[in-house]
Write a structure and sequence with these properties.
InterPro entries: DNA-binding_RecF (IPR001238), DNA-binding_RecF_CS (IPR018078), P-loop_NTPase (IPR027417), RecF/RecN/SMC_N (IPR003395), RecF_2 (IPR042174). The RecF protein is involved in DNA metabolism; it is required for DNA replication and normal SOS inducibility. RecF binds preferentially to single-stranded, linear DNA. It also seems to bind ATP. The chain has about 375 residues and is an alpha/beta fold. It folds into 2 domains: about 1-110 and about 310-368, Rossmann fold (3-Layer(aba) Sandwich), CATH 3.40.50; about 115-305, Glutathione S-transferase Yfyf (Class Pi), Chain A, domain 2 (Up-down Bundle), CATH 1.20.1050. Helix content is about 40%, strand content about 25%. It has 10 helices and 15 strands.
Length: about 375
Amino acid sequence: MKLTRLSLENYRNYHELDLNFSQSLNIFLGENAQGKTNLLESIYVLAMTRSHRTNQEKEIIQWGKDYARISGEIEKKNSQLILEMSITPNGKKTKINHLEQRKLSDYVGKLNVVLFAPEDLSLIKGSPQLRRRFIDMELGQIDPLYLYYLTVYQKVLKQRNRYLKKTGNNKVDFTYLEILTEQLASSGSHVIYLRHQFLQKLEKWAQIIHGKVTGHNEKLSMRYVPTIDITPDMSVENIKEAFIEKMEKNLKRDLLSQSTSLGPHRDELMFFIDEKNVQSFGSQGQQRTTALSVKLAELELVREEIGEYPILLLDDVMSELDDDRQIHLLETIDGKIQTFLSTTTLTHLSHKMTTTPEIFNVVNGKIK
C-alpha cells in the first residue's frame, strides 16, 4: 500500500499544497513549529477520519477559513483509489473515488496507517485510556464490524449514563434501564470478543519482534483485562450473558455513582516481561522496547489481515530511541514499507539508512 500523492487545502498552516511521494522513505525535515507534524497528521486524518492530536476538529481548519480539505491517491495491491475528506464546523464528509460515503465504517480501512509518535512511548506507562484508544484505532481500521459495534456501544453508553445522572435519587424506571443494559451488553460483548481476538494475534507478532530486539533474553506477553470475567473459549453470546449478569449485580453502585461502572470503556491492557508487570516494575528501557515491539507488531498484523503492509508514520520519534532501537526500526521497514518520517535533523539517521530518502524541507507551512 502506497500514498503516491497528497493535496491539502486550508489545513492548519497549509493554505494549499500538492506533493508526490517516494514509494519507500519520505522525510519531512525542519525546525519545530514549521508544519512537519501537520503533514503527518493530515495523512492520519485522511486514513482514520480523525486526528491523533485533538478531538476538536475545527482546530484542523486554517484560521479564518470555513473548511479544510485533504485528498490522496492510493496504490494498493489490486486497486487504485482517490480518497477525499472535507471538514467544516458542522461536520465532515468523506469520498472514495469522488463518491460520497454515508457511513464512516465504509471509508475507514481503505488507507491503513500505523503511527509511531513520542507519546506512544508512554503507551505502556500511561493511562488505561491510552491503551484502549490504541486498540480502538488499530482494530477499527482492519475490522469494519468492530468499528460498528464500538460506535453502537458508545452511543448506548452515553444514553445510559445520561439517564443515571438524570434519575439521581428520583424514581427509577427499571424496565428502561434493563433495555439499555441489554443493548449495552449486546454491542459490548462483540467489542470484548473482537478485542480479545485482536490482542492474541498482536501478542504473537510482538513476541517475535521483542525477541529479536532483546536477543531472545526476555519474553514479552500481553494480557487483556476486561471488567467482565471471560475465558478464551467464550462465544459472543456467553460474554453477553456474563455482561448482563454482572451489570445487574452492579446496578446499585451505578445508581449511586450515576455512571456505568463496567464494560469495554473500563477495560485494561497489561504488558509483562518474563511474567513481571512492565507498567509497574519495568525499566524505562524495557518500557520503550515493549512499545517499539508493539508498534512494529501492528505492521505485521495489518499485513497478515489485509495482505499488504500499511503506511508507517514516524513523528519525530527517532530522537527518542537509542541507536539499537533506531537500527532495528529502520531494518524492519527497509524496502518494504512506505514510511513518512518527521525530524529536525538527519545527523542521527544518515549513517543508518540504506534507502535513499525523498527529503522535503518544511519552512513555515511551505515545502522548500
